[in-house]
Specification:
Elements (H helix, E strand, L loop, with lengths): L1 H35 L18 E5 L2 E6 L4 E7 L5 E3 L11 E6 L2 E4 L6 E7 L4 E7 L3 E10 L9 E10 L5 E9 L11 E3 L4 E2 L3 E3 L7 E5 L3 E6 L10 E6 H4 L23 E6 L3 E3 L4 E12 L6 H34 L6 H14 L20 H16 L6 H19 L1
Antiparallel strand pairs: 1-2, 2-3, 3-4, 5-6, 5-11, 7-8, 8-9, 9-10, 10-20, 11-18, 11-19, 12-13, 12-15, 14-17, 15-16, 16-20, 17-18
Amino acid sequence: MKKSILISLLLAVALVSPLFAKSKKSAAAEEETIQSDVPEMGVFSDWKKVRSRRIDKIFGRIRIRVLPGRGTFNIGAVNESEKTISILSNMNEYTSTYFSLRCGKKIYKLHDSADVKTKARLLDDKVQIIYSVNGTADVLVEFIPVESQYGEGYDVLRIQTTVTNTGKKAAEFALKNVMDTVLGEADLYHFYTADNVPIKSEASFRTMANSPYFNSKNKAAWCQFLLDGADVTPTDIVALGNYATVDSSTWEPDMSSYRTFDTVTSYNNSAVGILWPAKRLSKMQTMQSVYYIAFATDGNIPFGEEFINLKTAQMKNSAAAAGIIAGTKKQNDTSKVVTENQEQEEVSEVISVSKEQTKTVIDEEPSSKNLPKELLTPEYVEGLLKRIDELKAGDQTINKEELKTLNDELDFILSIMRS
């Protein structure tokens, strides 16, 4: 009897042991998955090795804080006493400032959706957050500090977003950025126009061409939201209003031009909403948006306007130089068509076609006379080199065309300066 009981117990153990082993193995695998700290994220699969640690980094006059697990962020200005003045609300783990993505009719609040996984990382020259919307899109947000004046330290923040369609088919995408601003809540007015005229009630703008930026400020700090000019992406709507108005469940906030910044439920709580135009993307196609924020503290005025004007001029000069380079190459390519063995009639025909194709191209050999004088200065070349370095540090796949143009321009200018 005892023998049969012992055999039964041994059989039971033998049957149950594999189940325990399997359970233990599954738990270990699950733990390993959690520790590996994320899934692959579309074209940004290298993010799977990044650990989710809190990011808190100061770049010159700019402080960027990110909570990777939630995908939330905060931006502050650092004064001369090295004290940080937040320009965005730091309450509730920064959740009142966020990006939203619209795919078709569905809206994803990127830091607050079960369908979205987030990661963040700190690089030498920027901070990145990626939001991966399962089977729909990857949204990369980059905070890139830049200098308004060369050698004076970081005082402008470039906020660049890249949306990649990771779905199985083409779809329409749009992006929105809601920022819970706080500087104006300690001032007489929440916002001011580029001409420093106070904005006394909620307002929305379909274009920022007439007033390319707006100010948010108080005695401690001043920032400019730069939304037009240079490489800034044209906006669809810019909304300045009470947070309850801007933080809308609908894609576009319901704005009233004569409603104050206070509501029954939300007093003295201002916010900014930036919406960019929708775009249809094919599978793995991308769209990008860019804007800047300029900072100042201790009673100083930000150099945002000067920065964006200089950058606009540099881009125009680059385009002019690129046109001259392209024209020169075109002339050289056309000359190769003519060979000594061709009949005179054929030569005449080629020359005629060549003249027709190059009417807008300068006929002279490239020289300093063909270029604006601003391009032939050490300062401009330094700026060009700095922009090339910025592009090389970023995603060269996205910036490939601009990088090539700038390198061509640099080679061309240097050859002229040497001659």
